[in-house]
Amino acid sequence: LSDLLQLSGPETDTVKRAAGLAKNDLVTAMVVEMTSLQGVLGEVYALDSGEDKAVAQAVREQYLPKAAGGTQPDSLPGKVLGLADRLDSLVGLFAVGKKPTGSADPFGLRRHALTLVDLLISGNLSVSLDKLFEMAAGHMPVEVGQAHKDDLLGFVNDRMMVLFKDKGYRH
Predict the structure, then answer these.
(1) At what angle do helices 76-95 and 109-122 cross, to 10 degrees?
(2) Helix locations, the chain, DSSP H
(3) pLDDT per residue over 85-110, tens digit each?
(4) In whole angstroms, how far apart are CA 56 and each of 14, 72, 107?
(5) What is the C-alpha to C-alpha distance for residues 168 and 165, in angstroms, rounded to an integer?
(6) Alpha carbon of 27 to those of 22, 38, 78, 139: distances in Å?
(7) What residues are paired with 101 via a beta bridge?
(8) Is residue 31 within 8 Å of 41, Cβ to Cβ?
């Protein structure tokens, strides 16, 4: 993603380090008890361990926005880490046949798709969804066929239409 989005060397280093620490806070009892602390505690633990402030910030921001219209990540590394997380979930779960059906969405993939689009738009990140899905598919432990990627593209496009409609754009 860093190459695709043309991040600078220091931004790429920040994303790589933050990615290595991204989910460490999930193994704590504190986050299990209070899921709203995801990322917040990750940032605290990273700073307490002597990590760079930009790395700690990206660890926290990967979860943003937490809801539609919510606070966006301030840093580019935070946006990129958030994109990577959403892409991993979307591409991986579509590849194993766990796409939402009807009103059932046990993995929150509709929210992930909306957040993915929102992060791209708010970050003014110009990149093809096809390229993003192809890149993420290359990192999956399962085969991601073209039909999975096509299905996912349609799914994300549908979410994009909802997002634009909610923002007042006409069909």
Answers:
(1) 150
(2) 9-21, 29-33, 40-48, 53-61, 76-95, 109-122, 129-137, 146-166
(3) 999 999 999 999 999 988 899 999 99
(4) 9, 16, 26
(5) 5
(6) 11, 10, 21, 23
(7) 104
(8) yes
